[in-house]
Amino acid sequence: MLLEVRDLHVEFRTRDGIAHAVNGVTYGVDAGETLAVLGESGSGKSVTAQAVMGILDIPPARIGGGQVLFRGTDLLTLKEEQRRRIRGARMAMIFQDALSALNPVLTVGDQIGELFTVHRGMSRKDARARAVELMDRVRIPAAARRVRDYPHQFSGGMRQRVMIAMALALEPDLIIADEPTTALDVTVQAQVMDLLAELRHAHGMGLILITHDLGVVADVADRIAVMYAGRIVESAPVHDLYRAPAHPYTRGLLDSVPRLDHKGRQLRVVRGLPPNPRSLPPGCAFHPRCPLAREVCRTDVPPLYEVSETRASACHFWRECLDGRAGA
Ligand SMILES: Nc1ncnc2c1ncn2[C@@H]1O[C@H](COP(=O)(O)OP(=O)(O)OP(=O)(O)O)[C@@H](O)[C@H]1O
Ligand code: SF4
Ligand SMILES: [Mg+2]
Hints:
By secondary structure, the protein is an alpha/beta fold. Helices cover 35% and strands 23% of the residues.
């Protein structure tokens, strides 16, 4: 396994108490594989990704436990200096908002080039040439000229490509893309996703794709991990999960999307509201919204049950759900 997150816990100390943002996340991605992470707003998708990358602000965040194994090494035990080196060269992150992720006072050529001067000790001139190459590769037209432009001179879609170029620069083993296309219009979204999928194939990278868009997931992901209240509630190969979800929350998400092949469709929330991370319900955190809930769900936290060799579900009654008896 390229990356394996095991029983990760992250909490935030806030004025109103402790927010339990990540409560035992376990997921993994192999080289050359795309894992989609799906879930409503506030379910802990980004905080988990930030913990993996080592970019959480500690405090207010605190890692309460767990492991982040990258090629077998637990990143949580490394010194910041070692983590920084891995973060630059071995794993990279693409954010939703390129404009705030890029430096407004540096040309994109200097920003991409800096990766090569800092990490590879290249001359400025060589680094500039590599920047142009990369911009070509992510299909930014007239790269040789545009390398001198500043971020604000690019359209949203082109800026996102600049960020992808930066993520690819040092040929990382893993890319985490946190809603990389949410801010773009539908056609550009599709182009950027196609590009990511193509590059992932070409480079054999692992890709973790955080998204709200079920249409995108069906097209590009190999596996899905569904998050709820800071836990993975179901994980499965994409097509198995679409055919027959093994968790009532996943079923609710799928039922709320009439056509899975419809690009750009956002997740509509399942009836009821996600729980407050400062006061999570006891037992299964989903029980107040669950059509299958019964007494045991209010008291016993469901473990992540093994449904098959490739599937897992954190529901006491996953069999019923698989049989299709859980209408949302
Ligand atoms: N700096 C912080 N201080 C306090 N709470 C935080 C902080 N950052 C995140 N949280 C809380 O952690 C929980 C998980 O947040 P996270 O950003 O991971 O959600 P998400 O699944 O990425 O949602 P979205 O789809 O909206 O991006 C939320 O309840 C959020 O309020
Ligand atoms: S454990 Fe109970 S409440 Fe939780 S998802 Fe399963 S049936 Fe619903
Ligand atoms: Mg997020």
